[in-house]
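Re: that chain you flagged

S.,

Sorry for the slow reply, it's been a week of failed gels. I finally had a moment to sit down with the sequence you sent. For the record, here it is as I used it:
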Amino acid sequence: MTRILIVGIGALGGTIATRATNAGIPVWLATRTPESAKALRASGLRLTGIGGAASSSALQIATIDDYRQGDKFDLILLATKAHAALKIAPQLADLLMPGGTLLPIQNGSVSQMLADQLGDSIVLAGLSNLGATMVEPGVYEQRNAGHLLIGELAGGLSDRVTKVAEALRGGIEIRVTPNLLGSVWAKLLLNCSVTTIGAVAGQTMRHYMTSSAGQEVFRQMYDEALSVALASGTRPERMVVEPIPPGWKGKSVPSDEYNVWVDQIMATYGDIKPSMLQDFERCRVTEIDFINGYVAQLGKKIGVPTTVNEATTDIVHRIEQGLTQPGPKRLDELLRAAGAERLFVPRD
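Prediction finished late last night. Pasting the structure tokens below so you have them in one place:
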């Protein structure tokens, strides 16, 4: 039997834990505090939404410190926010059995950063497109029929990937890929543009793309991130659309085909409230440093200009600090701060 520990019982971790236990997969759960562990043991987990209702009781749940008393695991699924993942991962490595695997499923650069810190032999990369909301601690709503995608950061398939997929399969859909980094970048491209721009503007994509500033920020943000991905040697995978826009020549080219490409992205993400905007509203620290900030950092390292991503990262930090507020005017400020020239004629 594979011993599995799920760390982080928020929207994503709670949804996975509930589905896993309902499928008869034995999992242990880790919370930050003894109080939250006690509360979840008393209440159990409840899940509604796509995939059907499910609930779990008689949970094996404790803090990470409690597990240090002797528990060891074959697989630790790390479902916390990015900042917490980097902070807590070194402690989790001590809870792995020999040959055990740490599977982070955060957006952006987290898997690569943890692999650099702990080693590829420990870290297996993961990516989630599960949509879920935590209504309150222990109560979740699944918003889509998503899945977890897992793979080796070095590329290719491995016995480890197959074993981890089999251990989790049944509770949630698990897919494997020989180009995990390409999948990470495919999502990162859209996180950098769609999600972050919406957060800064305080609007959905469908709304901010009605302005010339929104269209220009989207184009330049996406082009910079794609240039960094390609220069780093990664070929992004298809996700919603082909990652390289039609007619792309190092920059997006205005055309009817490009407009259709944008509309395809809009059809999927146009009306979704950005998660980063929700972080602003709840006064939470965002994951900007692992999204646009990572693109800017890597771009600087390999010599690819990322002025719009840098300026965006700065504006997001200012919003986090209460020095400014999200709003459409932030997009004009962003373009001015980046010294970005306007190359596109705005769409009608």
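What I noticed first: The mean pLDDT is 92.

Talk soon,
D.
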